[in-house]
Amino acid sequence: MLGSTTVPALIVCALAFLCPESPRHYMRKGKHMKAYQSMCKMRMTKVQAARDLFYANALLEVEARKVGNSGNKLAKLFKVRRNRNAMMASEVVMFMQQFCGVNIIAYYSAEIFIHEGFSVPTSLAVSLGWGTLNWLGAIPAIFTIDKFGRRRLLLITFPMMFACLLWTSFSFYFPSREVKIACVTIGTYLFAIVYSPGAGPVPFTYSAEVYPLEVRSLGMSIATATTWFFNFVLAFTFPMLRKAFTSTGAFSWYAAWNLVGFFLTLFFVRETKEKTLEELDGVFDVPAKEFFKFGVAELSYFGRRCLLMNVDPPTPPYRQLVVSDGQPMDEVAVPSSKA
User: Fold this and answer.
1) Mean of the pLDDT values across residues 222-229?
2) Quick check: is 310 in a domain?
3) pLDDT digit string (tens) for 281-328?
4) Which of 55, 96, 134, 139 is deepest in the core (most CB within 10 A)?
5) Which segments cross the bilayer (predicted)?
6) Distance CA 278, CA 276 (A)
7) pLDDT at residue 54 is higher than 50
8) Distances (CA, A) of 113 to 173, 180, 244
9) Number of domains in the chain
10) Range name among 118-127, 152-161, 207-216 with the lowest pLDDT average
């Protein structure tokens, strides 16, 4: 039975050979023809491939001049502002993927329902239904993650997950067994539907694209370690949390973390939608203090929109790398506009 779990992994390993190599990787190795051939596989026309390859190569020269190609990668991850901001955003989304509370339902749903007086068949059926919805709910992310953006999906879904877990937590107070089963099931099912296109797929997608090539392997390793470390923390502490504060208190605790996740996303997570790897350098090179101010302005914008005020959204700050006549130039700061 355990051996059957190797089948999907073997399929993924086989399909990996069909993926084209990164053009940036080839260019760093001086293999420009292979870089061009690889880019052609990822663009509609050869003209587009040549354009993007030229742009990538020019900005790689800027990157090399700015941070160099040698040195301790771990030191670069913390000392270079662009890398540090990317790591901070990546760690936020990976941490919140666990502390949104999804795995207390995934791991303990059947046990929770049995503890609250549900029958074993009912508990297993509810748990199976939750897992099915969690899987089906991820399908819309294929279309929404690039349409709405990673950051926006998180900002939309965290408050909704807060509401779902809060509903679930207080549903345990209903004296009627039938009403309790119905309300808890509705709350957890709605949570799965909201989680799946947001905090489910976004963190891994986001973390894989925010780092520059030279520190990506290290950054992604740290991000993956973070999510599994807090997965362990959550799985280890939840039984004690439920015993001390009951199911209502435990679910309320993780509901509150979803509000924390909303503000962490607002102030520290930057949008990567429709950005090339080179353009992301400009996104993450903006100082954290300046982006925090943008988050405050955006929060004000959300508040005024809720009051039905007709206001323009603030523009995210960006530091643009300018290329002129084929020669990379120094970065030029582009200030954010105020709403």
Assistant:
1) 95
2) no
3) 889 999 999 999 999 999 998 888 888 888 888 888 877 654 444 444
4) 96
5) 6-23, 86-108, 128-146, 153-174, 186-206, 218-238, 250-269
6) 5
7) yes
8) 13, 10, 17
9) 2
10) 118-127
CA atoms within 13 A of residue 331's CA, in its CB half-sphere: 22
Amino acid in position 321: L
295 neighbors 266 (Cβ within 8 angstroms)? yes
Whether residue 35 lies inside any domain: the answer is: yes
- For residue 62, being part of any structural domain is answered with yes
Q: Are residues 82 and 136 in the same domain?
A: yes
Answer yes or no: do 38 and 157 share one domain.
no
Q: Indicate the residue type of 138.
A: A
Two structure tokens written together for 136? 């089906």
For residues 271 and 141, state if they share a domain: yes
Mean pLDDT of all residues in 213-218: 84
Give the separation between CA 1 and CA 298, rounded to whole angstroms: 50
What is the predicted pLDDT for the residue at 321? 54
- Evaluate whether 87 touches 207 at the Cβ level (below 8 Å): no
pLDDT band at 68 (very low <50, low <70, confident <90, very high): low
* Domain around 41: 22-70
Q: What is the pLDDT of residues 136-147, one digit of tens each?
A: 988 888 888 888
Do 265 and 154 meet the contact criterion of CB atoms below 8 Å apart? Answer: yes
Q: What is the pLDDT of residues 87-146, one digit of tens each?
A: 999 999 999 999 999 999 999 888 888 877 778 888 888 888 898 998 898 888 888 888
| 210: nearest Cα among 67, 86, 55 | 86
The position carrying tokens 């190795």 is 29
- 201 and 149 within one domain: yes
Is 12 within a domain?
Answer: no
> Strand locations in the chain, DSSP E?
318-324, 327-334
What Å distances lie between residue 168 and 177, 249, 283, CA to CA? 14, 11, 38
Question: Within this chain, do residues 226 and 281 fall inside the same structural domain, yes or no?
Answer: yes
Q: Are residues 126 and 60 in the same domain?
A: no
> How far is the C-alpha of 7 from the C-alpha of 32, rounded, in Å?
36
